[in-house]
Design goal:
Blueprint (H helix, E strand, L loop, with lengths): L8 H9 L1 E6 L4 E3 L8 E6 L2 E7 L2 E8 L4 E2 L14 E4 L3 E6 L3 H6 L5 H24 L11 H16 L6 H6 L1 E5 L4 E3 L7 E7 L1 E7 L5 E8 L2 E3 L1 H6 L6 E4 L4 E7 H10 L1 H23 L7
Antiparallel strand pairs: 1-8, 2-7, 3-6, 3-8, 4-5, 4-7, 9-16, 10-15, 11-14, 11-16, 12-13, 12-15
Helix pairs in contact: 3-8, 4-8, 7-8
Length: 296
């Protein structure tokens, strides 16, 4: 299970004590669009449909199965409202966590466990967001909103989110808004993974060099998207090169080296930074949801 990967027996035992298994029948709602978002769910067995309701009826957003996590917004006390409804396609068994798992793991005395859980959550959120953007047939936000509006909105969101931090200066001083020109590399294969990126505007091409030194296109990405979150935590070499394609790219860069130093020096503050990153990705999910891709 992606979100629990790497946790030990002690930590898993703690999470079992703050959660419970639930079973719902086919057609039964797990939560409804517009309800307060509290609690997250891990699907153990069965299938959950995520949908939104419009004037012309229901619009299916996603279908989730065993091992998938849904309702991550409920991890936060200020998670807001559910942006979509969740319904069982048939009899479905889930594990519900209604208390804050990060706070529970802090009580174990080792802050590495809540840090690992938050890192796993961020990777899961980023993967889910990318899947939803790729599956959506409407135009990417980079074609809808002017670049200056995207910059202003991101800065507003960042300001609201970091204001609660004990040392918000870490985010304000280290998160950089940057531009790439056409053909310029965001990251290069083999380089250390020193940052992760939120892409606000533009298109990217992803290439990988084979053992003979030949470059091959393996993917293309359009804003909004998230790139490099795994390497941000590990510092391992990049496995591909990512370049701006067809025009300028606007992105925010979160430097990994500074974060890893903070994680060693002050784990409690590192957890707050991870909360901030998770909230930013959730905001992106919510914003994109206004164009038809909802965050559960």
């Amino acid at each position: 299970m992606e979100i629990l990967e790497g946790l030990g027996a002690k930590e898993l035992s703690v999470l079992r004590h703050i959660g419970r298994h639930i079973s719902i029948g086919g057609g039964q709602l797990l939560f409804r669009e517009g309800q307060p978002a509290w609690g997250l769910y891990v699907i153990i067995d069965g299938t959950i449909e995520i949908f939104r309701t419009h004037r012309d009826g229901e619009h299916m957003v996603a279908v989730r199965g065993p091992g998938d996590v849904i309702g991550e917004m409920g991890l936060f006390k200020d998670g807001g409202q559910r942006t979509a409804s969740a319904r069982a396609r048939g009899t479905t068994v889930l594990y519900e966590i209604s208390s804050d798992p990060v706070e529970a793991l802090k009580q174990c005395g080792d802050l590495n466990a809540p840090i690992l859980l938050m890192q796993n959550l961020i990777c899961a959120l980023a993967n889910k967001f990318r899947r939803r953007v790729e599956a959506n047939q409407t135009a990417p936000l980079s074609e809808i909103a002017p670049m200056k509006d995207l910059v202003a909105e991101f800065e507003r969101e960042l300001g609201v989110i970091v204001n609660h931090l004990p040392r918000e200066g870490f985010i304000r001083k280290t998160v950089k808004m940057e531009h790439l020109s056409r053909g310029e590399a965001l990251v290069k294969q083999g380089d250390p993974s020193d940052s992760f990126f939120i892409i606000h505007h533009g298109n990217l091409v992803v290439t990988r060099r084979d053992e003979l030194g030949k470059e091959k296109i393996i993917d293309r990405r359009a804003a909004p998207t998230v790139i490099g979150e795994t390497g941000f935590f590990t510092g391992k070499p990049r496995i591909a090169t990512v370049c701006a394609e067809g025009g300028p790219v606007l992105h925010s860069r979160f430097p990994g080296e500074e974060f890893r130093k903070l994680r060693e020096k002050n784990p409690a503050e590192a957890i707050e930074i991870l909360y901030t990153i998770a909230r930013l990705i959730i905001h992106m999910n919510y914003r994109y949801g206004q164009s038809g891709v909802a965050m559960s």
